[in-house]
Amino acid sequence: MRVSFPSLTVAFLVLSCGALTSAQSSASNTITTNLSLGARGTQVVALQKILNRNLDTRIASTGPGSPGYETDYFGLLTKAAVVRFQEKYASEVLALAGLFQGNGYVGFYTRTKLNALSALATNTPPLLSPSTSSASTTTTGSGQTTAPQNPNLKNLDKVLATIDKVQGRQGLSASAITNIKEHVMKELATTTDLRATFLKQLQNKSHQTINKNQSVGGLLATIEQAIKSLFTTEHARAQEAAIPFGGALLVPFFCEDSGNWWLTIEPLPPTYVTELSYEPFSQAFLSYNIPYAEWLLGEYEPAGACVFACPDCIVVETEGTITPMVGSSP
Q1: Res. 77: pLDDT tops 80
Q2: How far apart are CA 181 and CA 178, in angstroms?
Q3: Of 204, 183, 171, 175, residue with least CA distance to 253
């Protein structure tokens, strides 16, 4: 069989171009520098592409950072995805670095694992099956599986925007606000549904104890109100009056060191309050309306705080504390 020289030349060129394209693609998905929050550039794009190949570490389901829409900015969502990646491959990343939990910093060991998976995935379809986690997956009408939704990251953008607004208004520096947001992201980045976990703990608390606390609280409130009505002037009572609030409950964040909740609310008029503290079971009504409810309506008193991440201790001053006079609606 005779093969013409032009045919061999064409075949060689096709194979060479294919190899070159493959090499360029591989190089473009290799992380060669350390990366951290705030970084920009093509290396961040490569990082996001590798993370997006696995449902456990996908940065976002839609919008900036999602598959096909990777960006060149290393933001909080990217950092959270890196934390999940580090904890997913803890024995090959964290253990070698002497760490016990992810920190979101792409150093030598994290880069090594990322690059190994990137090379392995060259001929592997994206969206690898996720490992066991509490985050659920959904299937579209065409049968295509979408990314798991981390319940802790729901409404994340609104929560971070609220932190910027409220803490900035209270005079915190930009670095202090960034520190708060980073710690919040670190707490929420785990695939464990933190809200469901804590609610389960609440449900295990006996109804008798809860009802007793609420009954005593209601009795004390009645006595206090009677004393106030007898000995307090109208002007003083007006100054001490609680402030009404209402709105949708976005995220209940448990403050493990102060033992209360930090609630982020999408507010309704007239007060537009967005960050409130809540003491568990403090409501006067015999119901679990917080933090089970989606909508809240009630009163709050100025001043409140959430303390977590001790021994360093992050202290977040909220706009107030919810009083026992609070209700909910479905």
Answers
A1: yes
A2: 5
A3: 183
